[in-house]
Design a protein that fits this description.
Distance between the termini of chain B: 64 Å
Oligomer: heterodimer
Largest sheet of chain A: 2 strands, antiparallel
Shape of chain B: globular
Largest sheet of chain B: 6 strands, mixed
Number of strands of chain A: 2
CATH architecture of the largest domain in chain B: 3-Layer(aba) Sandwich
Helix content of chain A: over 70%
CATH superfamily of the largest domain in chain A: MetI-like
Order of helices and strands of chain B: HEHEHEHHHEEEEHHEEHHEHEEHHHHEHH
Helix content of chain B: 40-55%
CATH topology of the largest domain in chain B: D-Maltodextrin-Binding Protein, domain 2
Number of helices of chain B: 17
CATH topology of the largest domain in chain A: MetI-like fold
Number of domains of chain B: 2
Shape of chain A: flat
Strand order of the largest sheet of chain A: 1-2
CATH class of the largest domain in chain B: Alpha Beta
Radius of gyration of chain A: 24 Å
CATH architecture of the largest domain in chain A: Orthogonal Bundle
Number of helices of chain A: 13
Number of strands of chain B: 13
């Protein structure tokens, strides 16, 4: 390393030092300390007492924790693919060169600007079993089916019935696909036109072009959105928390890992156990991200490579 | 280049320092020469206004202490974090039921000595409020505004159903009979109105067993969630979905508006009787139709000969967090609030009754709630209770709400759902007890320190 290199390194480090300091103080320190506290009996106010792996052992036998893991995985398993397909589908539609496309793009992006809490309150009413817009829309369909077959079917009380509550949250989540749509749209702009043109000459139709050109070129963007969706879905908190008024939902169907972590930390004063849940959540997301990266390795097409 | 970098670094430091100063300066320097004590309170709106008026009186009454009042949301969490961070307020207004967990985590200053020195005596209060403020043999708080729960009924609906509007149900069996008469269904069979729903508003799912003679804790080592009385209470809860149908009940309840709105089902006549506290007066005044006629009576028990005037009493309390900078001055203020005149002003402002034994005739004359006497009488009843003083109460309460929900939706029978609560809460409680055994000696020594 020459003197000039050293100087540049120092200068570079100096310039990014605010970020490094912030990263160390606000990310690395909390990460490591929560790892430590996960092995303590700790209530925030009294000094932490080291208990080894006790919190993790408790976690294994805690049925409510496993319920929260199940709920989180269930939510992610449907919310991620649904969000992915929906946002990609919208992006492809919005990419058509139609008059007024700017308006359509804005309209589809707008809902994702609504803050989480407002979104939750809004959908709480949309999904209301008696007066909600969703059920008001479904009612005629159910009425027709009932009239035809003499059945007594009724649309569900979305947030009051354990079997439907998570679906309510999953549908609510679809309102926030705007961000992903914008990222896909940017990706779609980058698809070289000459590929489409040569495919058209070879007689390719819309589906051929989508399948063989658009999707492969978009694959890094899809990968990015999947990982972001994965992280977001596993950390789901604000919407169910607001919708249930800070509770767990019917039969704990809306108790997610992040909610249970929060309850233990701030309602039950078990910060040590909450940290252990945090570590478990971290490891779960880490493992799934790693798996997603490994599985998609051969399916992602990087333009530069 | 080097000088440029150096200068840039200096600028960055200067900006950081300026930001730091502007943050830490805020709020200090009020009323020079007086000890400023910080007071955090959970109330907002008219309840906060009532306390602010008392604080203003206190500040005007002397020139040694100045109380800085702040309305703080989510006070439980903020107080916990501020105390842990070593920057607690000098006085905080929390809920009586939170005292055990704060005390056992050494987050509060015991008030025994300050109270003795200040001449505050237990016999000044209605008994139950002293009990709420004490835990493990120490005094941790003094009460502010209390409440009790009673049956509140809509007289007009009683009259329309052919019931005597001045005769509330005297037993749970009678309540159920009234319920049958008050039920209205729409042409499609769905529910339009009912007499009573244990799930409305659903704020006290834990305590139904009390009206069956049950307890939630034996006061020592055993949680008693699945005692025969509590199971009987949940079997009574079970009778509702059986009678009305789960789906109908859920849809009916889902259509209820916000509690604090004209769409509150009690005000719209969709529910004729509710379990409520004295605050209901404010909501009736603000949201119910002008011709709304209501009565207040003790909530009926399963056996009126054995269990009479059962109620849950709660109290807002004032505490001095551990590590507060001016505990003496803080107590001076708490003591002031607990003297008769300011207390009556506060309770009148918040439309509650006073926790003090002595109460002026003027207080009742001025009180806008015509039924405040009934709520007060219930608080004085020998059968008045408060939630068990357990550090795991929050978990217990959440578990009971879940159990209630399972029974309400016919997902599990009463006994089974309460067995689960019993197992889970007892386990958590045992762990807390073990922890207490480890720390109790050190803590009690600290608390007993003169």
């Amino acid at each position: 390393m020459t003197n000039g290199d050293k100087h540049n390194l120092r200068l570079g480090l100096l310039f990014i030092s605010p970020w490094i300091l912030g990263f160390l103080a606000l990310c690395v320190y909390p990460l490591l300390s929560s790892l430590f506290y996960s092995m303590c009996d700790y209530s925030v106010l009294s000094p932490a007492v080291f208990v080894g792996a006790q919190n993790y052992r408790d976690m294994f036998t805690d049925a409510i924790f496993w319920k929260s893991v199940y709920n989180t995985i269930f939510f992610a398993a449907f919310a991620i693919p649904l969000g992915l397909v929906m946002s990609l589908f919208l992006a492809i539609l919005l990419n058509f060169d139609l008059p007024g496309k700017g308006i359509f793009r804005t309209v589809f992006f707008l809902p994702s600007l609504v803050p989480m809490v407002c979104l939750a309150v809004l959908w709480q009413w949309m999904l209301n079993g008696d007066l909600g817009l969703v059920n008001n829309t479904l009612n005629p369909a159910f009425g027709a089916v009932n009239a035809l077959f003499g059945t007594h079917l009724a649309p569900p009380n979305w947030l009051q019935e354990a079997a439907y509550a998570k679906w309510g949250i999953i549908f609510t989540g679809l309102w926030g696909v705007g961000h992903a749509v914008v990222i896909y749209l940017a990706g779609l702009q980058g698809v070289p036109r000459h590929l489409y043109e040569s495919a058209e000459i070879d007689g390719a139709n819309f589906w051929h072009k989508t399948w063989h050109i658009t999707l492969p070129v978009l694959s890094p963007v899809i990968y990015f959105n999947t990982i972001m969706g994965l992280i977001g879905s596993f950390q789901v908190f604000a919407v169910p928390y607001v919708m249930t008024g800070g509770g767990d939902g019917p039969e704990r169907s809306l108790l997610f890992m992040a909610t249970y972590l929060y309850q233990n930390a701030f309602d039950y004063w078990n910060m040590g156990y909450a940290c252990a849940i945090g570590v478990a959540l971290f490891l779960l997301i880490l493992a799934l991200t790693y798996a997603a990266t490994k599985l998609s390795e051969h399916h992602i097409h990087y333009e530069g490579k | 280049m080097k000088t440029y970098t150096f200068r840039l670094g200096c600028w960055m430091l200067a900006v950081l320092a300026a930001v730091h100063c502007s943050c830490s300066d805020a709020g200090s320097g009020k009323e020079a020469g007086r000890v400023t004590i910080k007071y955090w309170e959970k109330w907002t709106g008219f309840e906060a206004d009532a306390m602010r008026a008392v604080v203003d009186d206190f500040n005007a009454s002397q020139n040694r202490i100045f109380v800085e009042f702040s309305s703080v949301s989510q006070i439980d969490r903020r107080l916990m974090l501020a105390t842990a961070g070593g920057v607690p307020p000098d006085v905080a207004g929390i809920w009586g039921k939170s005292l055990p967990v704060y005390a056992e985590n050494n987050a509060l200053t015991p008030l025994d000595r300050l109270a003795a020195e200040g001449g505050v005596r237990r016999d000044q209060y209605i008994d139950i409020f002293c009990q709420i403020c004490s835990y493990r043999g120490h005094l941790w708080a003094l009460p502010t505004t209390p409440s009790s729960l009673a049956l509140v009924w809509n007289k007009k609906l009683f009259r329309e159903a052919g019931l005597d509007p001045e005769h509330p149900p005297q037993s749970l069996a009678e309540l159920d009979q009234f319920n049958d008469k008050l039920v209205k269904r729409r042409p499609d069979g769905s529910l339009a109105a009912v007499g009573f729903l244990p799930a409305e508003p659903g704020w006290w799912n834990e305590i139904w067993g009390w009206w069956f003679g049950g307890e939630l804790w034996d006061g020592r080592n055993a949680i008693t969630a699945n005692s025969p009385e509590n199971v009987a209470a949940f079997q009574w809860i079970e009778s509702y979905p059986r009678r009305f149908g789960v789906h109908d009940l859920l849809a009916f309840r889902d259509g209820f508006g916000n509690f604090a709105s004209p769409q509150n089902p009690f005000f719209t006549g969709r529910v004729a009787m509710v379990l409520q506290g004295p605050w209901i007066y404010n909501f009736i005044k603000n949201f119910a139709p002008p011709d709304f006629e209501w009565g207040v009576a003790p909530f009926p028990s399963v056996d009126p000969a054995r269990f009479q005037n059962i109620t849950q009493v709660e109290a807002d309390v004032l505490v001095i967090p551990a590590g507060a900078k001016h505990p003496k001055e803080a107590f001076e203020f708490i003591k002031y609030v607990n003297s008769q005149k300011p207390m009556e002003k506060l309770c009148l402002g918040q439309r509650k009754f006073s926790p003090l034994r002595e109460c002026s005739a003027e207080f009742f004359q001025k009180h806008p709630n015509p039924h405040i006497g009934e709520f007060l009488a219930l608080a004085k009843s020998p059968n008045a209770r408060f939630v068990p003083q357990l550090t795991v109460w929050s978990l217990y309460s959440n578990d009971m709400t879940q159990a209630f929900g399972r029974v309400w939706t016919e997902k599990a029978p009463a006994g089974e759902s309460l067995d689960e609560v019993q197992k889970h809460v007892q386990q958590a409680f045992d762990r807390q007890q073990k922890r207490w055994e480890q720390i109790s000696e050190k803590l009690t020594k600290e608390w007993d320190k003169p």
